Amino acid sequence: MLPSTLEAVLYAVIVIAGWTFCTWIYNVFFHPLARFPGPKLAGMTQFWKGWRYLIAQDHIPKLFELHKQYGNVVRVGPNELHFSDPAAYGELYHPNRRWKKDPTLYESMTEGAGSWNLLDYPSAKKRREVLLSHFSRKSILDLQHVVQEHMDILCDVFTDHINTTGKSVDLTHAMKCFSIDTITSVCFAKPINATWSPDFKSPMVLAMDRALIILESMVYFRWLRWVVSKLPPSVMLALTKNLEGYNEIRQAFSRQIESILADPSVLSSAPHPIIYHSLLTDGKAYSGKTSITGSMSFNDLSEEAFILVFAGTDTSSNTITTGAIHCVENKDVYQTLKEELRGAWPNLAERPSYEMLEKLPYLTAVIKESLRLSHGVVSPPARIVPMGGAVVSGYAIPEGTIVGMSSCFVHYNESIFPEARTFKPERWLGPQAKDLEPYLVAFSKGSRNCVGMNLGYCELYIAFANLFRRYDLEFDGVSTADLKWVDMYVPLHVGPDMRVFARPVSS
Ligand code: HEM
Ligand SMILES: *[C@@H]1O[C@H](CO)[C@@H](O)[C@H](O)[C@H]1NC(C)=O
Ligand SMILES: *[C@@H]1O[C@H](CO)[C@@H](O)[C@H](O)[C@H]1NC(C)=O
Ligand SMILES: *[C@@H]1O[C@H](CO)[C@@H](O)[C@H](O)[C@H]1NC(C)=O
């Protein structure tokens, strides 16, 4: 009676449904991780986690709930465990434990081999060495004027804005613009000039927020990635009108790479060392040499450029905005910070150096506390237990298991940071403060920690010093209670933007 194709489809559906059902049964009762506690649904299918990220958007609060119920280790996916003891963080991300990154997260939205998505340590190590020398402390000290120049541009816009309109500024987006202009300047000597966008609503910055949600979706729907990669660019553009800025910047980077590959001598006209001096001259630091050794493909270069912009924008700007808002709200912190800065930087016209700012104890405490409460990356950086298995936090974990721990569980731990949810720079001062250092994990730890840490710190010092020395800051209708975020790998802010009145001080 049934046409044979329909019959075939029917059988296929039955087979797939049966197979899925058997997988669930296997996962819950017979999987090597079946002995670990956690929600049954999470053990059954990875869509439990997908649901938490994309639909319920309560991933981190849910993890806190689960650890309260089940203890230090929770099975959060068929093949995945999450830990909560701060000591476990040090074990998972130990410099000697060079575990592979989990491809479902790190390859979810990438087109070439970049430092962030090179999965195994030996291949990542080579790239990291080149970048680490490019972003070394010494290089950043030499490039600090670039950071200060972008801060000055931002301050000009702030001052002009209050003078002409009398209104508040959107600090959330302003800092994103500052970070993206700084990173594109430092890496490519080509700032995208986001800071000049009306009300700081740069199309690129807006597109990056949307891209985060797409990245998280691709983790669960890998076929989506395949579909997207097959679409002609024109269709892509029409479908994703809101990713306009994203495509634009990707193309701008590609054009720069093309022009350098076509004529390496253009490198010598750059005003300061850019990443291609390091990436294209076999890891040698800038020396005017421009021999192209070609160990990286065009796609790899373009991917690396993109990763640096992504990794260096939301992370820094989120730390500045979060920290600044807490300083504005807490009058004691605000006054202490301003006094320290006024003392160390008496003449407004003479910009202090980064080295000098670094030595200021209260500013340093404010920056550490800002990093603690903004977390860097909030998703658990997923790693794969190598052959032979491993012991983590006293548990024997089978090989191939995905393990991770969100930095929030270190930063919010009450035994390490009493009143953990409160902004208290004082905790970083005094003799016991040294003991807290290992628990500041905003840049992560170990073999895959942040390669841009020196630049990150430089941006933080220059931003906090300039904002609080050059302006009187006051809230406009918001407070720290409005600082709400969801886990989209980095914290994606879902509350209202942080608006402040920024009134320039006269001296
Ligand atoms: C306050 C600023 C920053 C914070 C809090 C931060 C935080 C982090 C964290 C937590 C990771 C580890 C992510 C993971 O394992 O999944 C990371 C990796 C990375 N960061 Fe940063 N970052 C900051 C600024 C920057 C800047 C300015 C750059 C660019 C120069 C940068 C480039 C990178 C790269 C390339 C990686 C990947 C390293 C690897 O996988 O081996 N970051 N960052
Ligand atoms: C802004 O206004 C203040 C005082 O009203 C003035 O001193 C300052 O020069 C003005 N700045 C700019 C950039 O217009
Ligand atoms: C940014 O501004 C600078 C200086 O005005 C200019 O040279 C550069 O072309 C601008 N970049 C872009 C991407 O518009
Ligand atoms: C906080 O850290 C301590 C050890 O430093 C640990 O015993 C405790 O379980 C942690 N608290 C939570 C809620 O994970």
UniProtKB/TrEMBL annotation:
The residues that hold heme are C450
GO MF term set: heme binding; iron ion binding; monooxygenase activity; oxidoreductase activity, acting on paired donors, with incorporation or reduction of molecular oxygen
Query: Coiled-coil annotation: which residues?
Result: none
UniProt KW keywords: Heme, Iron, Membrane, Metal-binding, Monooxygenase, Oxidoreductase, Transmembrane, Transmembrane helix
One Pfam assignment? p450
- Which pathway is it part of? Secondary metabolite biosynthesis
* PANTHER family listed in its UniProt record: CYTOCHROME P450, N-ACETYLTRYPTOPHAN 6-HYDROXYLASE IVOC-RELATED
Family (UniProt): Belongs to the cytochrome P450 family.
Tell me the protein's name. Answer: Cytochrome P450
Its lineage opens with:
Eukaryota, Fungi, Dikarya, Basidiomycota, Agaricomycotina
